[in-house]
Each structure stands twice: as C-alpha cells, then as structure tokens.
Specification:
- One of its GO terms (biological process) is proteolysis.
- This is Acyl-peptide hydrolase.
- This protein is an alpha+beta fold.
- It has a domain at about 400-665: Rossmann fold.
- The strands form 10 sheets. It has an 8-stranded mixed sheet, sandwiched between helices. The chain has a 4-stranded antiparallel sheet with strand order 2-3-4-5, with no helix packed on it. It has a 4-stranded antiparallel sheet with strand order 6-7-8-9, with no helix packed on it.
- A hairpin with a 5-residue loop joins strand 16 and strand 17.
- Mean pLDDT is about 95; it is low at about 1-15 and about 660-665.
Length: about 675
C-alpha cells in the first residue's frame, strides 16, 4: 500500500512539473504574431489594432483587425478574412471601424466599414486606383483620401507587358519598381452620398492629410520644388475641405517638414522638422516643432535635446505634446510642456516604445517590447505602463531566450560606443564562447533594449551575439550620427573592431571563433570589416554591396550618392575609396555567405553577386543565396526561416569546428 501511494505521489509530481523549455529556433518565426497600428476609440474605452499571423499552407502572413478594452479585460477579433485588412480607423462617433481591404475580385484596396456592434463589413468605396492613406473628418461626414493616379501605361491585351517608359531622375524604388510620373493626390469622400471630389491635381504628391478640429481644413505634406526627385524639401500646406479650394504653404524650411498634427483648439500644428536644411538629410534627427495654423515662424521645441523624436501627439488640453525619444539604446515616452519648454519623461527603462496614440480620457496607447518579450500594446498613465494584450505569452512560453545587457567599448581613436550583448541561456559565467557580431542596418538607427528576433535566433544557436551602435547610429546626438558622412567603412569598422576587442579582452568571446554578419548596411559593413581584419572565421553578408561605383544608377540612392560622394566621373577617387572591399578583395580570407532578394532595388543583388564572384575567383569559401521575387526585406515566411537556418549552418561549420581540424583539412 505504501509503495502504491508513493507511486501515485511521484506520478502526480511529474505531472505537476512545468514543461521543459528549449532554445528559440528559426521555425519559431512562423509562430510569432505581429501587432501594429493601435487606434484608440473616441470615447477612450477600446483600442483597435492589426494582428498578423502566418498561414503556413499559403506561405504568407494574413492580417486581421482586433480590439482590446482599455482595462485589458476583453479582446475581440473583428475580421477573419483570408484577404487581410489594414489601417483600422474609428469613425468620430465611435460606432464604426473603417479599414482597407482588397476583396471580391477588386484589384485595388477599398475602404470598408464595420459596425462595432457586430455584422459583416460593408464596402464603402469603389476606387479605380491605389488608395495610399485616409483620415476621417471630425464631424464624421467626410473622409480625406490619398489616391495615386491610375496607371494607364500597360493596356496590353496579352501577358507581355509593354516597355517601361522612364524619364525621371529618381526612377526606381524598392517594392515599387520602376517609377512613372503618376502623382498621389487628395480627394474628399462624402460618407453619405459616396461622392468623390478632387482637392488637388498636378504633378506633385500630397501625403499625410490631417483634419482641423472644426472639419473645415486639411493640413498635408508636399514637395513642390521644381524637381522633387532631386531633394527632400517637403513642406506643410493647408487647404479648405472643398473642391477647387486654394492651398496655402505654411513652412519654408529647406529640409523636410513632416507628420503634421493639429492642436485640439485648431490654432496650431505640431510637426517634425529636419535639423538640416539641405537637399539630403539621411544623417539627421527630427525636431519637434509647432507653427501657427495661419503660418509664421515655427517654435523649435526639442532642438536643444539633440536626440531624434517622433510620433508627436497633443494632450487633450493642448498644453503639452507627447513624443517618443530615441536615446542611447532606449526609446522612451516624453511630453513637452509648451509653457515651460520642459521635457517630462512619462515612461521608460530598458525597453523600447514604438507607437503612441492619445486617449481622450487621458493617457496614451503605445506599442512596447522588452528584451525577452515581443511587441504588445500598453497603456501609459500617470507615469506607469499597463499591459493590455497578451498575445506574445504563448510565443515565449516554451522558449529559453538569451539574457540581454548593454556594454561600452572604446575604439582605437578613443570613441566611446554603446552596444548590446546577447548571452545564450545556460552559458556558464566566465566561459569564452563562439561569438557573432551582428551589425544593424541603416546606418541611421540603433540597437536597443527592445525585442530583437534576429539576435535571439542566433543566440538560440549557442552563440554570444553583439550589436554595435557604430558611428552613424542614432540615439547619441547629431554629431555622432553625421560622423561617417562621405566616409563609409572607416569609423564604423573601427567601432566594430573596438567592440570585438572588448569582448575578447573580457573573456566573453573566444578569439578563435569569431563571426560577423548583418543585412543591408549591416551587410555592407560586414564586407568592409572582413576586408580590413582577418580575425573573423565566418561571415554572412545580407543585401550588401562593395563596389559602390556600380551602384550608381542601379539602386534608389542617387540623391545620397551625389550629395555625399559627388559625381562618379568627377570624384572617382572618392568612389574608389569607399569601394575597397571589392577592389581589395584579395585581402579577404573569411568564408562568407552572401544573400539577397532577386528584386531588391534598395541594395540590388548585384552587390552580393560581385563579392561572391570575387571570393570564388580567389578560392575563398563562399555561397550565394538569392530569394526569388523578394525585395530588400524578405516577406515570404519560409524564406525568413530559411535565412536563419542558413546563417546557423554556415556559422556552425566554421565556428563550432576545431580550428586545427579546419587548418589541416582533416
């Protein structure tokens, strides 16, 4: 009897034990749900948002619209169509949710209306061209639409497309392909009569429409210089909400003015202005600015902060403006008191916020992620954050994720660089480990304390992973960001090598098992680094380039090239200098995996093909992976998992095998 009870006790104990967790792996990409576009209902009781999940059979993501109550106690799925929906927006009375979908054989996205009390969505528009954006008038009677002119270029009756006829300076762009001269214009849609009125015409694009609180005017953004292709000089304009109304220009800054938001009383417009007044502003950080709705000199609210701000949102009383601030590996929520000019921090820490929407009752809805938790929706109230959604709990439940910490390194010239370190679970303290320097793209951007799927996946393969916020990154001030202007592959490489030296000197990285990789500018810097230093035993260069001279006219960055490097036939020496990974490819000894999208116009696959060919000619182990039909970012789920499977197999081959064995060929 005693043994029976003991057996029952042991059986019960085993059943009560929590399931064994495992490292994250590439196939987990298919389980990850993406939350985006939170929108607070007018009365402040609900937050609508999009949730995308992977349809494994169709090998694509499908996006549906959900809503969660402000207290976080109720979560409701509103759409479940296999076609997918986007851009949920509340009608001003809170009764309806509108969204964009392509259903029932439509070729272009249309506006649909969903009664929040239940029922099927009803189609609201029957547009014959691309709907790019929309916004409800506060009175609920009209909707401002941004519609691109109809494409009449291909009326071929067969499947053979007519030739592209191109005469623009900026003539190609990733995902869009070759660019024609169709413009995006503002239209006014009457919700009751379904009548569509034209507000703007001509050869210029109009974007980002926002209504004045009294529903009489629309502010928008446009570049109306003589040739918008050759600069980034966008300005704010206002127009009355009626056909054939004249428009008025509000700003005259030589750089960019974007993201307009009306004050609650309609007297002012907050917006983001570039720091520089030049025609090319990549190395820049937006400044929160406020201008009278009738024009005049703007007030530069955040200019003294020397940090990029975004997502400006007025408080309900109009006395402050909340923003997201990128600051040294963190993104926090702050609010500027307009009377004093003081910036108050509303929420922050070792995490990253990514969106911000006002609640009319007070507080803010936001997207936020933590080092070991992907993005969820939170409420920010009284200096505290409160979680509203819990979709990611199921994702992280079976996983052991890497611990995440910051570290500071110094480069050869003494520059201090702030970085991120991912330590695999169950790695003993003080153990030297195979280490991968995984470099972020941009270059403007930063590795932060938000959830980082790429580095977690590499760490799940047993690697210590480091992210380096090299010069050119944001979050450290404008001078730090602009330090690499026209001088690529110099200071950034010094910062990457400085971080590598730190990891080796502190017993974190095994110096005989170092790898490096990255995508986009991270791939470009991978090429620069392995052409500079031979300590790395394996590399993975994704969507990168090296022979920069051949990128002129091949990618979408002609304005940047001519601004930073000058014309190739006049500044040839400068172009050759930044092309050194290809021109000095015989210095490279690192086995390298090259990857890219077949249709990438951002960094064309030719950049990877050239380096692959060079290393094959030199007898250095190399492999080239081309993802069919993909642009700069991979969108097919199976390709996303394939990329990380290949990363891990490549690094395992060279970093988890004895160096001595590799050297002898045994």
């Amino acid at each position: 009897m005693k043994s029976i009870f003991l057996g029952l006790f042991l059986t019960g104990s085993v059943l009560a034990q929590p399931p064994v967790k495992r490292p994250i792996q590439p196939s987990d990409i298919l389980r990850l749900q993406n939350i985006a576009d939170p929108q607070v209902s007018p009365e402040g009781s609900w937050v609508a948002f999009t949730l995308s999940t992977v349809d494994k059979e169709k090998d694509k993501r499908n996006t549906d619209i959900w809503m969660v109550s402000w207290d976080g106690k109720q979560t409701v799925q509103l759409t479940s169509s296999p076609d997918g929906e986007s851009s949920p927006r509340w009608s001003p009375d809170g009764r309806y949710l509108s969204f964009v979908a392509t259903r029932n054989g439509d070729k272009d996205g249309q506006l649909w209306l969903l009664d929040r009390r239940g029922g099927e969505g009803k189609k609201l528009t029957d547009l014959k061209s691309d709907l790019e954006a929309y916004e409800w008038a506060p009175n609920g009677k009209s909707i401002a639409l941004v519609i691109r002119d109809k494409d009449y270029s291909d009326s071929a009756k067969t499947k053979i497309r007519k030739p592209y006829v191109i005469d623009r300076y900026h003539f190609k762009e990733d995902t869009k392909g070759y660019l024609d001269r169709r413009a995006a214009h503002l239209y006014l849609f009457n919700v009751e009569t379904k009548k569509l009125d034209t507000l703007t015409t001509g050869s210029y694009d109009e974007t980002s429409p926002v209504w004045s609180p009294d529903s009489r005017q629309i502010a928008f953004v446009s570049n109306r210089t003589s040739d918008p292709d050759k600069n980034e000089n966008t300005d704010l304009y206002v127009i009355e909400a009626r056909a054939k109304a004249p428009m008025k220009q509000l700003t005259t800054w030589g750089g960019s003015d974007n993201n307009p938001v009306w004050s609650p009383d309609g007297a002012q417009i907050a917006y983001l202005r570039s720091t520089a007044a030049t025609n090319f502003i990549m190395y820049d950080q937006p400044v929160l600015s406020v201008i009278s709705a009738s024009g005049g000199e703007p007030k530069l609210v955040s200019v003294a902060l020397d940090r990029p701000v975004r997502n400006p949102r007025w408080s309900p009383d109009g006395k402050s403006i909340a923003v997201l601030v990128d600051d040294d590996r963190r993104t926090y929520v702050g609010a500027y008191d307009l009377a004093s000019g003081k910036l108050n921090r509303l929420a922050g820490g070792d995490l990253a916020f990514a969106d911000l929407e006002q609640n009319s009752k007070g507080g803010w809805a936001t997207l936020m992620s933590k080092p070991q938790l992907p993005t969820e929706i939170y409420a920010v109230e009284n200096g505290e954050t409160r979680r509203l959604t819990t979709f990611q709990d199921a994702f992280v439940a079976p996983l052991t994720l890497a611990s995440v910490e910051g570290f500071t390194s110094r480069s050869k010239d003494g520059t201090q660089v702030e970085n991120m370190l991912f330590r695999p679970a169950n790695v003993p303290a003080g153990q030297k480990s195979p280490t991968i320097l995984f470099i972020h793209g941009g270059p403007v951007g930063q590795d932060n304390f938000g959830f980082d799927l790429s580095r977690q996946l590499l760490a799940g393969g047993g690697y210590v992973v480091a992210g380096v916020n090299y010069r050119g990154s944001s979050g450290r001030g404008l001078a730090f960001c602009k330090a690499i202007y026209g001088d690529w592959g110099n200071k950034e490489v010094a910062d990457i090598l400085g971080a590598t030296d730190y990891l080796v000197a502190n017993g974190i990285a095994d110096p005989a098992k170092l790898g490096i990789g990255g995508w986009s500018y991270g791939g470009i810097l991978t090429n620069y680094t392995i052409a500079t230093d031979q300590r790395f035993k394996a590399a993975a260069s994704g969507a990168g380039s090296s022979l920069q001279l051949t990128m002129y006219g091949s990618d979408q960055y002609v304005t940047q090239y001519e601004s930073e490097l000058g014309l190739p036939w006049k500044n040839t020496d400068k172009w050759l200098k930044v092309s050194y990974p290809f021109l000095k490819a015989d210095r490279i000894k690192t086995p390298t995996l090259f990857m890219g999208g077949e249709k990438d116009f951002n960094v064309p696959i030719a950049g990877s093909e050239q380096m692959y060919q060079a290393l094959k000619s030199l007898g250095v182990p190399a492999q080239l992976i081309v993802y069919p039909g993909q642009f700069h970012g991979l969108s097919v789920p199976s390709y996303q998992t394939d990329r990380f499977d290949r990363y891990l197999k490549w690094f395992d081959q060279y970093l988890k095998t004895s160096v001595a064995v590799l050297g002898t060929g045994k």
